[in-house]
């Protein structure tokens, strides 16, 4: 279960909406453009590195929560 929901209840549309929200947040942060393609590898990179240059950004926690959600979603897809 992720965030109180079974992965069977989460659709690709849900993941796409979260990707779109994260993309908007990352546009306000210092993140290499090649890491804004939300492949499993890039989402894991964001999980490890987003705070390095962005921890003071007022939207950091929201972005980080979305990154963690997407990491778990990618893991559940495997």
Model description:
- With 78 residues, this protein is mostly helical.
- The chain has one domain.
- The protein has 3 helices and no strands.
- It has helices at 12-26, 40-54, 60-77.
Distance between the termini: 15 Å
Helix count? 3
Percent of residues in beta strands: under 5%
How is the main sheet built?
none
Which range best describes the helical content: under 10%, 10-25%, 25-40%, 40-55%, 55-70% or over 70%? 55-70%
Helix-strand string: HHH
- What's the count of strands? 0
Total number of distinct structural domains: 1
* Rounded radius of gyration (Å): 12 Å
**What is the approximate shape?**
globular
What class would the helix/strand composition place it in? Answer: mainly alpha
**How confident is the prediction overall: mean pLDDT?**
91
* Parts with pLDDT < 50 across at least 5 consecutive residues: none
Give a quick rundown of the structure:
With 78 residues, the protein is an all-alpha fold. 62% of the residues lie in helices and 0% in strands.
